[in-house]
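Researcher: Final request for today, and then I'll write up notes for the group meeting. The sequence and the SMILES for flavin-adenine dinucleotide follow.
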Amino acid sequence: MSESRTCPAPTKPVQIAPIELPVTGEVGRRSAHSPTSSGTVHAMATSPAMTTHWLLEVHVEAFPPPVVLPSEAEVVVIGGGLMGVSTTYWLARLGVNVLLVEAHQLAWGATGRNAGLMLAGATPLESPELVRTVLREEGINAEYTEPGHLALASSPEILDKIHREASQRGATSAPVYALDHSACEDLLVMRINTRFLGGRWFPGGGMIHPTRFVYGLARAALRRGAFLATQTSVLKVSPIEGQESIDVCTSRGGIRTRQVVFACSTSINEFLPDFRKVITLVRGQVMSTQSLPEMFRIGLAVDWGTVYWRQTADGVVVLGGCRNLDPIAETGAQVLVNQRIQDALAHFLPDAFPGFPTFRIGQRWAGIMDYPVDGRPIVGALPHAPNQWIIAGFGGHGMPAGLGAGKAIAETIATGRAPAALEPFDPGRFEKEG
Ligand SMILES: Cc1cc2nc3c(=O)[nH]c(=O)nc-3n(C[C@H](O)[C@H](O)[C@H](O)COP(=O)(O)OP(=O)(O)OC[C@H]3O[C@@H](n4cnc5c(N)ncnc54)[C@H](O)[C@@H]3O)c2cc1C
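Model: Predicted protein-flavin-adenine dinucleotide complex:
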């Protein structure tokens, strides 16, 4: 196929966008609410490219940019985060000719910047069984475990809500238990600051290494015939009038396709302006420590996720949150480290756990979440745009649904029939609801 007329000539590989970083320094000062804090924190130099703990642990060069971009594909998927890679994987598994286009590296967006907590159960798309099966079938070692999750309650109101939730939980839902302060200490085998009154224990909570997950899935997609083009930006998507084809204009030239899947999270609003009213972009701050002795075998949070953390298999604690300290600054699509929030994160562990050992910070980073106005992800066919699809809007809770959502949308594209499980996520619902 000849190159699309809407497309500029192929250019040099896209450079990863420069990111502003604050000057780091000593942050061993105690926070105002930490009378019992005994730990000390020393900041370490951060990489000028603001890499994340997770991205440092995979070989990004395993997916180099294409020497020649294919000019045709049955389906083009835009975005190489969990949603795009999962959709590509399932399409390739169904025998569909699929080309994924990623502006930077795989998992460069929210997928490579999260905490890897897998708290499944909110929707039928979130299936731990599906995750276990695919990891086993494809031989992916993503350090997936289901050790449980404890959310510490910071007020009597929150603890009350946890008690109500635990007692009213339906018989078909995974159980949740309300614990008092000392039961939380017994569970963690650690002292906990008395400002935490108790907690919500969810034995079904899981954790995963997000980039190993996505890179393993991408390798499986390649083995099944998918084509992945990293460091290639999609610039424009233009349906061709009177034909069932769509021109996808990229920084490396044009692709003619029959179907396009928008899995590009924070850029969706640029391609599909109607979704600006529907998706709000919110920034989250995350840091990782150096490797520490095993302290947290389970995933943890404060309340409904004001702060969240987990320890990896090699002892690194990945900790995020404290957005409520600067909510206005932490809105929008700019990937910037917020020093004030990072300082609070650095002091959180010594404050919450008396006697917490001194540690050094490994990496600090930020990531952007795409929150839909009604809190439900947006997965399915775009209204008034034949053969165009969207998989987005997972906010701060995309990891457990990634495989199920990608499978559901791939099956819909391949068979023309949407599974009932996708109904609540219909992208057309915002029009119907006015
Ligand atoms: C700080 C933070 C903490 C989180 N913690 C958790 C957690 O512990 N558990 C959990 O379940 N969820 C968590 N989440 C949410 C989870 O990470 C997301 O829901 C999920 O990763 C979304 O995946 P995605 O593929 O939709 O988006 P992304 O991973 O952002 O992928 C989108 C991709 O599209 C690419 N792209 C954009 N524009 C273009 C273009 N024009 N051309 C080509 N490519 C393009 C981007 O480079 C990016 O790689 C967190 C998110 C953040 C930011």
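Model: Confidence is low (pLDDT under 50) at residues 1-6, 10-48. Residues 259 and 386 are 8 Å apart (CA to CA).
Researcher: Thanks, that's everything.
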